[in-house]
Design goal:
Elements lengths: L1 E5 L3 H19 L4 E5 L5 H9 L6 E7 L1 H10 L6 E7 L5 H6 L5 H9 L4 E4 L2 E5 L2 E5 L2 E5 H10 L2 H8 L4 H14 L5 E5 L4 E4 L2 E7 L21 E7 L3 H7 L14 E6 L1 E14 L2 E13 L4 E4 L1
Parallel strand pairs: 1-2, 1-3, 3-4, 4-16
Antiparallel strand pairs: 5-16, 6-7, 6-15, 8-11, 8-14, 9-10, 9-14, 11-12, 12-13, 14-15
Helix pairs in contact: 1-7, 2-3, 6-8
Length: about 300
């Protein structure tokens, strides 16, 4: 039995169209499945919680983007009892980019129904403001999160997504956020007690996977099944240097520049002088001056 959680609004409404194509194949193949169609924020999380309320092993297939997947993993009661499949119909899809999934939803459905491999996948968790939230791809505090926050409320994003040029939304917002960024000191503490002091923090991102932000390879050596977070700390750079360096992150070449350093840890604490925007998997987690990031003890099984 497959449990399909579908976000019809993903990728500016393309999710509903693509689901119809997927459903035809399920029916013609006489595949046994249950459908859970989301209608708003929080639905995917509630569906996942309901599906996993027993202690039975289940297979959940997420039809949506990274935001839908984030809701699902936050609804799962016991990660170790779940096998996850993902049919990418979002606008960023950083999760499937790292896992090497076919971009075509029909081909990914075939992989899910006839899996080549099922691999263990790490899940991270963020604690801030008295609340704990899981993430499948990454979390960030600072510049990258501020971009996510503004993009979530951008009216032009939907228009550009329909034209398949949604990344231009992020480019414009990134330039705006960079221009308005103010000096903010921070202390990053890793689980071995190592402390990194940054006079002018741009952002810190803790990553399970290699990509975030629609294709930026911020942690090029991240391994989604090693039980360790890869942490990129970016700071003490002039704004002009940021403009020169960040484009190189599309291929993971940014790590050779001063001011961009990658660390590895199971637990990371970031304290900033002034509160900064925080995101989990591209979704807003508010504005905070302290965040704690850790690996979940249990992994989830992922179909690839």
């Amino acid at each position: 039995m497959y449990h399909f959680i579908v976000n019809p609004a993903s990728s500016s409404g393309r999710g509903a169209i693509l689901w119809k194509e997927i459903e035809k194949k399920l029916i013609s193949g006489k595949i046994l499945y249950l459908l859970y169609m989301t209608g708003g924020d929080g639905d995917a999380r509630r569906f996942a919680a309901d599906i996993t309320k027993s202690e039975d092993e289940v297979t959940i297939v997420v039809c949506g983007g990274d935001g839908t997947m984030n809701e699902v993993i936050n609804g799962i009661r016991d990660l170790s009892l779940v096998t996850l499949g993902c049919i990418p119909i979002g606008s960023s899809n950083d999760l499937i980019r790292d896992l090497g999934f076919p971009k075509d939803p029909g081909k990914m459905l075939e992989v899910i129904l006839n899996p080549n491999r099922i691999v263990p996948m790490d899940i991270g968790k963020l604690t801030c403001g008295g609340k704990t939230t899981r993430f499948a791809v990454s979390m960030g505090i600072g510049f990258d999160a501020a971009i996510c926050h503004e993009a979530l409320h951008s009216k032009i994003k939907d228009v550009l997504n329909k034209l398949r040029i949604g990344k231009l939304t992020y480019l414009g917002i990134a330039l705006k956020q960079l221009a308005s960024a103010k000096k903010n000191a921070a202390i990053v503490t890793l689980d071995d007690g190592q402390q990194i002091f940054v006079d002018r923090l741009l952002f810190v991102t803790s990553m399970v996977h290699r990509y975030e932000g629609g294709g930026f390879k911020f942690c090029p050596d991240a391994d989604y099944s090693d039980g360790i977070l890869d942490v990129l700390v970016v700071g003490n750079l002039t704004k002009m240097k940021v403009l020169r360096v960040l484009p190189t992150a599309l291929k993971g070449n940014h790590v050779r520049f001063d001011g961009l350093n990658v660390y590895r840890a199971k637990k990371v604490t970031v304290k900033t002088h002034d509160p900064m925007a925080v995101h989990v998997d591209g979704e807003s987690a508010g504005i905070h001056s302290e965040v704690v990031v850790e690996q979940e003890e249990k992994q989830v099984r992922m179909i690839i």
